[in-house]
Amino acid sequence: MSVVARQGFKYTIIGYLGFILGALSTYFVFPFNFEFYGKLRFVLTTSEILVPIVVFGLSYANVRFFHQAQKDGKHQNLLSLSLLAVVLNFIVFVGLFFLFHYFFPQFKKEEWWSLKNLILPLVLVLSLSHVFNRYVSNYKRIVVPNIFENIFPKLANLIAFCFFIFLGMTEATAFGLFFGMFVLSLIGYASYANKLEKIQPDFSTGYFREKNLWKSILNYSFFGFLGNIGNYIAIKIDSVMIGVSLGMEELGVYSTLFAIISLISIPQLGLFNISAPIINKAIAEKNMEELDRFHKKTSLSLFFLGAVLFSCILAGFPFLASFIKNGTMLRESEPVVWILGSAILIDLATGFNGNIISMSKYYRFNIVIMLFLAALTVTLNFYFLEKTNFGIVGVAMATAISLTIYNIIKVLFNYIKFKVHPLTIEMIFVSIISTLAITVAIVLPNFESNLLNLVYKPAVVLVMIGIGNYFLKLFPVEEYINKKFILSIFKLGG
Question: H or E element: which one contains 346?
């Protein structure tokens, strides 16, 4: 087995383990105190949104220009200057942060100000880690970085929460443990990079000035910065705005509901690994017929599998909530599940449309549309939070609207430029049988045992969708539920 195959297999395993760890913690541990869980989510999310400002795309420059610099023996020079630039950017950022609050003292009332002593150092640690993460990937080593990137944040949340809630430690101690996990992660990144190739700091600038590379690096980093900050804002800003406007408890409830509904996206984890090279090849060969066929096939697969999972969640959620601490608070916000789930399902139906754009000569359009999504998300969140009384349901509506518009634009762009689109008549039939299955499951009588209801109602959904699929031949289950496909997900199938 090649290095790439071994790394891919281990990467996928760790990805699923991280998902399971996060899911179990979110369902059965964090609901014991939504307020403190909300604080942890707020700190990490706010820090992650600020990271792109400090990194300024330099992490991606360490991938784009690595091999060019390596040929001249200057790749560690690139790493050293990138880390130094991040530190200097952070110092400037901190100065501007305090200067802003000096001239606008009213913002000191916001939650990020009270938590600044944790958020600001975390921004620096995450920024340095981000650079090391991309640097190490040049050596085709993605497993260990994935542990630091995927597992450690979940462990940080879990350890801090358990020490505060169950062991009676002070909030300050819990936050210290939380921050310590990320420091440990940074040390791990640096140690692993040094193990791959001994790090020899080199802060000279001559090579990049002589080759005039600094202009190319700054230009590339700037576009990386725009795309990255747009992506972070679009995906994570809702958590920050909930924390600021509604409080940490509401953020904890929203985060828990989002974790439940994110189960719908599981099929993407494996399918993208398979799809990316096929999409890239079709575009390179300008084989739009093959690209259109493959686009429709993968989109239908994602939509069908997502619809099955979504239908099961809707049928079982009321009974799952009964086994979760403070589950009544989740039940009160159940519309969030329906709204976000529908938006994610639409996202799955549009397939890998963003990847088609990013792998083409129009890749810069992804940056433009991502910035548009970020602006639209912030605007809609502000409207629903400030102008309505919908609470986190309003945030879910804002996210659903912006995500749907975002996907419609990408579908139209791909159709105009490549004459490909993901939509098929089969998707309509999938929607019909899924709706019927959910309706029947909800209408059927409930037993006294919530455990029995949790099992039998989703089972009814599965049976009905299975029967519908058998007669309508919408999705070739037999092609996917087999050894070859399972192995291919884990990059063993060739």
Answer: helix 335-349
Q: Please tell me the distance from the alpha carbon of residue 439 to that of residue 205, in angstroms, as a whole number.
A: 66
- What whole-number distance in Å separates Cα of residue 483 and Cα of residue 488? 9
Residues in CB range of 233: below 8 A, 6 or more apart: 49, 374, 377, 378
Mean pLDDT for 268-296 is: 80
Which tokens go with 45?
């999310």
- Torsion sign, CA atoms 473, 476, 482, 486: negative
Q: Give rounded-to-5 percent helix, strand, coil for the chain.
A: 85, 0, 15
Tokens standing for residue 302: 């994602």
Condensed to tens digits (0 to 9), the pLDDT of residues 446-474 reads 999 999 999 999 999 999 999 999 898 88
Using the CB atoms, write b or e for 446-458: b if 16+ within 10 Å: eeeebeebbebbb
Q: Which residues contact 174 (CB under 8 A, 6 or more apart)?
A: 36, 160, 161, 163, 164
Rg (CA), the chain: 24
Q: Are 310 and 345 in contact (CB under 8 A)?
A: yes
Residue where the block lists tokens 């419609």: 408
Task: Report the distance separating Cα 316 and Cα 442, nearest Å.
Answer: 9
Rounded to whole angstroms, how far apart are CA atoms 200 and 216?
24
123: which residues sit within 8 A by CB, 6+ positions away?
A: 47, 50, 51, 54, 90, 93
Using the Cα atoms of residue 81, residue 87, residue 88 and residue 93 in order, give the sign of their dihedral: positive
Say how far apart CA 457 and CA 446 lie, in whole Å. 9
Which residues lie closer than 8 Å to 31 by C-beta, 6 or more apart?
Answer: 37, 252, 256, 324, 325, 326, 327, 329, 330
Q: What angle do CA 275, 310, 413 make, to 5 degrees?
A: 45
Convert the pLDDT of each residue in 209-242 to its tens digit.
887 788 888 888 888 788 778 878 888 889 999 9
User: Which sequence spans correspond to the domains of the chain?
Assistant: 1-242, 246-494
Can you say how many angstroms the Cα of residue 93 is from the centroid of all Cα atoms in its chain?
25
pLDDT tens digit sequence for 305-326: 899 999 999 999 999 999 998 9
Cβ contacts of residue 481 below 8 Å, gap of 6+?
none
Residue length, the chain?
494
